[in-house]
Structures are given as C-alpha cells and as structure tokens.
Specification:
The protein is of the alpha+beta class and 275 residues long. It has helices at 41-45, 63-76, 85-98, 143-146, 169-180, 223-234, 246-250; strands at residues 12-16, 26-30, 48-56, 59-60, 104-111, 128-135, 148-154, 185-190, 193-197, 201-206, 209-212, 239-241, 254-259, 263-270, 273-274. 24% of the residues lie in helices and 31% in strands. The protein binds N-(5'-phosphopyridoxyl)-D-alanine (PDD).
Length: 275
C-alpha cells in the first residue's frame, strides 16, 4: 500500500471494482500498482463520470456539491454508485491523509466497469472507481496576480455538457490550442456565444454587473460557480445569467473564470485584446 516518489507528485490511488486481478474491493495502492482492465468502458467508450475536489489546508472544499453533481451525473448515465456515500467521503479523506496533501485536489472517476466490448450496456459489469491526488498551490497561484490569457475556439463537444463525463477530447484540443496560441485557457463558442472554458465557467463584468451563462445542457454547473453566486448574493453583487458573445467580452470591464482547481482566476486578455 505504500508508495514511492519517483515522480514530482507522489500519490496513493484508490481502486475499487477491478475485476481482472485479485484485489480487494477497496485498496490504496501506489500509482504503479493501480491497474484497470483494457476492457474497462471508461477506456473504450469514455463511459464514465468524474469529479475534481479542491483541497486547502488539508480540507476538502465544496465536497457536498461535488457529490450532489456526481449523483446527478451517475443517474443521467444510468451508472451505479460504486460504493456508499460515507465510504466515498472516507476514501477522499484517507487519500488526503496518506498523501499528506495540504493543497491541491482529489480526482475521482467512476466508469461502468469492464465487459466484452459492446455498445449497449453490459448486464453484469461492476463500476470501476479510481481516485488520486495532485499537489499544487491553488491560493498562491502567480496567475492570480497577473491574470491569464484566453482565446476563443469553437465548442466541439456533445450536447450533454451538464454531465461531467470523462469524454474530454474536445476540451483537451481546446486547451492545447490555447497553449499553442500563448494563452492558458480557451473559451468555447457555439452559435456566436461563449458557452464556458475548457475546464472552467466563464464570466465578464460590465458596469458592476457580473454576466455568466445560465445553467442548461450547454454547460457544466460548476460547484465553484455555485459558491460564487452565494458570495455575490451576500455582498449585494448582481449576477446576470445570460449568454454573451466574444465581442461583448472584448469590451468588458473585467473577465474571470471559476473552477475547483483555480477558484476565481482573473483574465487579462481575450483573443489578444487587453481587458
Ligand atoms: N473542471 N466547466 C467545465 C467544462 C469544467 O470541466 C469545469 C471543472 C467547470 C468548473 O466546475 P467546478 O467549479 O465544479 O470545478 C466548468 C475540473 C476542474 C477539471 O476537469 O479538472
């Protein structure tokens, strides 16, 4: 159960439901020991969902909303819970403890499990659950003082972006394009309007009002977004939920993004225009 520091990020991972080797139902393993079947439907069909929960001061941030969203994602894909909810929380805490994680995140994903390759759902697969931690500074992120650069890209994703699936090829292509164009994030555009970032929700500020797209199947309901709404309400800051265009964003007074891994990140440039 123990583990080396061959890589910069040392982690224990937790694996359940692995059918191809004689592992116990829940195990904490080194990353070299953790294996998943090549027949896992997460691998073959991206048939799985995930959550990313921030850790600050060794504590999980917004854990409950993340688990509520996980429940919804599982239900929408007719995936079974891989274990009990209390067990899942205990596993998150245990991963944080074993990895000595002060700040960073816990990544966890659930797939439909391993079965003969077939598009329709297998009858008897057990869900696979894996989780690991990543250590990095969320609060003391230098980008938070300079602001980041964003570029716009077409939104190539499927139509159920409200489900947090592991099908992340389009966002990955978008993020790669952003990096190649000297930016740190891409805002995806559909029918002339910004949907969201490749791994974050998108906001602009105009005349003291925060503007962000309303929740629908077009975007992910961010847990950090949810907390931001609460904080804004407490401070009397108005948030207008509506779609905005890249042109409107170029003329904004401010822009920012939210995500569990960045909290609130200011944006200083969009498509080369200074904000
Ligand atoms: N991504 N929109 C998309 C498409 C996302 O992938 C994410 C999070 C968000 C923000 O959601 P939250 O505030 O709950 O993190 C919005 C995570 C961090 C990731 O995939 O790493």
């Amino acid at each position: 159960f123990f583990f080396s520091s061959r890589r910069r990020i040392t982690r224990y991972i937790s694996v359940t439901g692995v059918q191809t080797c004689a592992l116990p139902i829940c195990a904490y393993l080194s990353e070299e020991q953790g294996t998943v079947s090549i027949f896992d439907r997460g691998f073959l069909f991206a048939d799985g969902v995930y959550e990313v929960t921030a850790v600050v001061g060794g504590r999980l941030v917004d854990y409950e909303p993340h688990m509520e969203r996980l429940e919804r994602s599982l239900r929408e894909l007719r995936l079974a819970w891989p274990c009990g909810k209390d067990e899942l929380r205990a596993m998150h805490l245990e991963l944080v403890r074993r990895n000595g994680l002060a700040e960073g995140l816990v990544y966890m994903q659930v797939t439909r499990g391993a079965a003969d390759r077939d598009f329709k759902f297998p009858k008897d697969a057990r869900p696979t659950l894996i989780a690991f931690t990543q250590a990095f500074s969320i609060l003391d992120n230098p980008n938070a003082t300079t602001g980041i650069k964003v570029v716009t890209v077409p939104d190539l994703r499927w139509k159920r972006r409200d489900i947090k699936t592991v099908m992340l090829l389009a966002p990955s292509l978008g993020k790669q394009e952003a990096y190649e164009r000297g930016a740190q994030e891409a805002w995806m555009v559909e029918d002339g309007f910004v949907t969201e970032g490749t791994s974050s929700n998108a906001y602009i500020v105009k005349d003291g009002k925060v503007i962000t797209r309303g929740l629908s199947n077009s975007i992910l309901a961010g847990c950090t977004r949810h907390s931001l709404f609460r904080l804004a309400r407490e401070r009397g800051i108005v948030i207008e939920e509506r779609a905005f265009t890249p042109d409107e964003a170029y003329g904004a007074d401010e822009a920012f993004l939210t995500s569990a891994s960045q909290f609130v990140m200011p944006i200083a440039e969009i498509d080369g225009r200074r904000i």
